[in-house]
Every structure is written in structure tokens, then in C-alpha cells.
Design a protein that fits this description.
alpha+beta; six-stranded mixed sheet; about 30% helix; 5 helices
Amino acid sequence: MNLQELVHDFADALVQIDASREPFRTFQPGVGPYGEPQLVRLVATQLNRLPKYGGAVRTKRTPDLLVPNEWAIEVKITRPFGDNGREAENWSVNLLHPYAGNVSTIGDCHKLLQYSGPERGAVLVVGYEHMPARIDLTPLIRSFQTIATEVLHIRLSERVETRREGLIHPVHQSVDVFAWEVLRQQR
């Protein structure tokens, strides 16, 4: 299975979760407010309903999502705005903090470089925006790529991405899913 296929299936799972109108805790209905562990569990459930995954997709501590013998995926969520419609503080830090051993996407790249399973490793970012976007995620995504590849010399594949629109949440109205394979050999 290639990364693009997995990214599309992941995005479709987000739409299915959103369509359930199930609220996360006391937040407004929709997929946007879910926390990372809760969201990853729900996505795994959706993926396991597809015959091609054979019910084998698992959630773990490292990696966040495991498609046995295919992919070890670390997932991050970025939301410029909270459920209340106000701009969130420090919303971009989870992608850009450039040190190993932390919870950023860059930290996840380091974890995947140490991962010893047979699966290929990838980082996947779920980004929610208004329609149209009030804060474009493009500079954040490009910054992550630049820091990872040019500053820290982490080898990433070409970015794979897909977008879904029409989500039910009044703030998290669209979702972009971005992913990169983390190539194990450092340059």
C-alpha cells in the first residue's frame, strides 16, 4: 500500500467520523475538536472496516497508528482556532519544535528513525481550517519540511496531501491531511 492510498483512506475516515455528529467531550459536534489519541482510535476503527486492512490496524504508543507490515504512522493535529472560534495559542508548536525527545512532528521523525519494525515510517498531519481559511496552513507545512530536511537533515519523501471540505463543525470546516515517509537512512 502506498502512502497516498493510506492518506486518502485516513481523510475518508475523518469524514465518516465527522458525519456521525458525535461530539468530543463538551465540544461542538464534528471531528475537529477530538484529541489526538481519541481521533487515532476512531480512525483505526474506520480503517478496520475496509477489507484491504483486514481488521489489523492498531493504535499504539509508538507508533500512533500501525498498519502491520506496511506503515508505522505518527500523527499530529494542528488547529489554528479552537472550538470557540478564537485563535489558539501555540497551535503551531506541535509541528516545529526542532528537538528529539519531544512531542512535535520533528520529534516523531526522530522516533520513526529509531523504530525497529518492518513497517515504513511516516508522519501525518491533520490540519483543520475555516472555509475559506482564515489562517493558511501552507507556511506551517513548508516550515516543518524545511526544518526537518535542511536544518536537521532528516530525509522525507515528497509530501502527500488531500483535502476534505464540508465538515459539520462551525470552525473546523475543512481538513487537510499531509504525510511524508521518513526515510530511515540519514544523508
